[in-house]
Structure to design on (188 residues):
């Protein structure tokens, strides 16, 4: 993977996947924090959030300073894939939230729902919470219309588009409607 011969920077690009983008969750969402954290691990989850936040500022991609990013996450940058930073980056790739490209790395903005095999690795209380989350996520036309109206209002009032999903979730909009409202209100 990456970081074998340690380069000072890495090109980060968006990973466009219409299938996952239609059903996925923002990389900084409560869903990822609750359910993917135990799969990716905390360092990889924070790294993923950083990478996606960079894509908010530079949607076509950007150059990431590896030492600066490692330091911001409380890690040192040492040569090789066995460093904590290298392991975090490799876990993002291993679990399919990023992949190598010819120039660097492509990162998903939307993270897919957990696969059954991943779900089974979570503790029982999180498995139950996930089942409840998915059941609450069933799309309802009225709830979706309300979520879209709220998202449009938030945008008109100056809220950042990348924060909309979290804000909608925090006020009780079910996950599926929050994701769909953001998808419909924020230009790609």
């Amino acid at each position: 993977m990456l970081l074998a011969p340690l380069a000072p920077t890495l090109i980060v690009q968006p990973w466009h996947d219409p299938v996952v983008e239609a059903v996925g969750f923002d990389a900084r969402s409560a869903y990822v924090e609750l359910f993917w954290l135990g799969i990716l691990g905390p360092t990889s989850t924070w790294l993923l959030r950083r990478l996606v936040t960079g894509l908010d500022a530079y949607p076509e991609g950007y150059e990431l300073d590896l030492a600066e990013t490692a330091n911001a996450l409380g890690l040192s940058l040492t040569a090789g894939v066995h460093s904590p930073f290298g392991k975090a980056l490799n876990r993002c790739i291993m679990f399919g939230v990023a992949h190598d490209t010819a120039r660097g790395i492509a990162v998903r903005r939307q993270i897919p729902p957990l696969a059954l095999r991943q779900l089974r690795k979570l503790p029982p209380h999180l498995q139950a919470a996930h089942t409840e989350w998915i059941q609450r996520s069933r799309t309802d036309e009225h709830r979706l219309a309300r979520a879209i109206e709220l998202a449009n209002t938030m945008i008109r009032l100056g809220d950042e588009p990348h924060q909309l999903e979290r804000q909608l979730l925090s006020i009780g909009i079910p996950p599926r409607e929050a994701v769909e409202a953001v998808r419909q209100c924020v230009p790609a």
Q: What stands out?
A: The CA atoms of residues 69 and 123 lie 31 Å apart. DSSP finds ten helices and six strands in the chain. Residues 137-185 form one domain.
